[in-house]
Design goal:
It is a single chain. This protein is of the alpha+beta class and about 290 residues long. The protein contains seven helices and 14 strands. The protein is globular and about 50 Å long. About 30% of the residues lie in helices and about 40% in strands. The chain has two domains: about 140 residues, Nuclear Transport Factor 2, Chain: A; about 130 residues, Nuclear Transport Factor 2, Chain: A (Roll), CATH 3.10.450.50. Strands 1, 2, 3, 4, 5, 6, 7 and 8 form an eight-stranded mixed sheet that branches.
């Protein structure tokens, strides 16, 4: 009996340790930093191929399979480096994202540097032993004027949604919510973001450094006279039902100019509703 009890305790401790390891936001930060080192060592093409999920996508300009894209391109010149500054991971560790500044340099002079921000969505399937890169998207903007604050938070277990008996519920709810946002945007872009953007939400728009905080995002949208029409392409959600993503295409009118964009949204469950924690728009070149 003593042996059985001891074995049970050891097993429980091991499982607890494994779960704790899965739910540390450090896991996605470490994955992003290791990815950065691989790109520095092997180059952009081989670096991406080393971490991509089989269903991973990049926007060129439409979403295409990332493995197919990087397999079929030539070796990419220049040096690309980045640093995660904003990251979350789901309670069960199967979905995560990170975002932060990047620098691309294809030349020796400082004037050859291109600055911007990236957003990466990572996932781990039951057949994987580590996170794989599912979505990669970024924007360009002028050289940042000040250092960015670090925002890494562990998953809040109190906000994990209750389990569902519907095996398709994980996608259906996020799909419905994303489409609701897109149906509301043409009626009032400001009112939609006021309702669905998290108070600490991040907004990434080409040509501008990230805008952080709902009040600042609303002010930016108002000042820039931005109106949005968007259409959902696909969504996904963590099995723990606390973190999700969606992506699609959008037309944005900024002042008198209308342009086409891809968008990616990161969703978090607040305990009673889903809020947009991060949204990034990437311009589609014509």
């Amino acid at each position: 009996m003593k042996k059985i009890i001891t074995t049970t305790i050891i097993t429980a401790l091991f499982c607890g340790a494994a779960f704790a390891q899965k739910t540390e936001v450090k896991n996605v930060v470490d994955a992003e930093q290791a990815f950065n080192k691989t790109v520095a060592k092997k180059g952009i093409k081989e670096g991406f191929l080393s971490v991509l999920d089989d269903e991973g996508i990049v926007f060129r300009p439409k979403p295409v399979n990332a493995k197919d894209f990087y397999t079929n391109i030539d070796k990419q010149p220049g040096n690309l480096s980045w640093e995660p500054k904003f990251a979350r991971i789901s309670a069960n560790g199967d979905l995560a994202f990170s975002a932060g500044p990047y620098v691309y340099q294809n030349g020796a002079a400082d004037t050859d540097k291109v600055y911007g921000h990236y957003v990466s969505v990572w996932r781990k399937t039951p057949s994987d032993t580590k996170l794989k890169l599912l979505i990669d998207l970024g924007i360009q903007h002028p050289e940042p004027e000040q250092a960015e604050l670090v925002d890494f938070k562990e998953p809040d277990l109190s906000k994990v949604a209750p389990p569902s008996t519907d095996p398709f519920a994980s996608k259906k709810l996020i799909l419905y919510t994303d489409k609701t946002v897109n149906q509301s945007l043409p009626l009032s872009t400001l009112a939609t973001y006021k309702e669905f953007l998290s108070p600490e939400g991040h907004f990434y728009f080409p040509g501008f450094e990230p805008i952080v905080g709902r009040d600042k995002v609303l002010q930016f949208i108002n000042n820039e006279a931005i109106s949005v029409i968007a259409e959902t392409t696909s969504v996904g959600r963590a099995d723990s039902k606390d973190l999700a993503y969606s992506y699609g295409k959008a037309q944005i009118k900024k002042g008198t100019i209308t342009s086409d964009y891809n968008y990616v949204r990161i969703w978090e469950y607040s305990g009673d509703k889903w809020n947009i924690l991060l949204e990034v728009f990437s311009a589609i070149e014509k």
